[in-house]
Design goal:
The structure is a single chain. This protein is α+β, with helices and mostly antiparallel strands and 76 residues long. Helices cover 22% and strands 45% of the residues. It has one helix spanning 54-70, and strands at residues 5-12, 15-24, 30-36, 45-51, 74-75. A five-stranded antiparallel β-sheet has the order 4-3-2-1-5, covered by helices on one side.
Length: 76
């Protein structure tokens, strides 16, 4: 995944709940940046998650998206 970026947007009832963006870190690892929006609306909170490699980061994104789909969210 070197030089590429993966973005997933999560919605529920046409409201954006989260955005996950996966990209390479300058130090050689991979970062998943999660922006989570409150259900009542408002500004999102950003939290970075650092991984040693792209495989671990992509696996994290896959599992997070699966959980959100089980909860009835749409992922794009």
């Amino acid at each position: 995944m070197v030089g590429k970026e993966l973005v997933r947007e999560v919605t529920y009832d046409s409201r954006q709940l989260a955005t996950l963006r996966c990209f390479d870190d300058e130090g050689g690892g991979t970062i998943v940046e999660a922006v989570v929006f409150p259900a009542a609306g408002g500004d999102g909170r950003t939290k970075p998650y650092r991984f040693a490699n792209a495989h671990e980061a992509f696996r994290f994104v896959q599992e997070a998206m699966l959980v959100l789909q089980y909860l009835g969210c749409s992922v794009a």
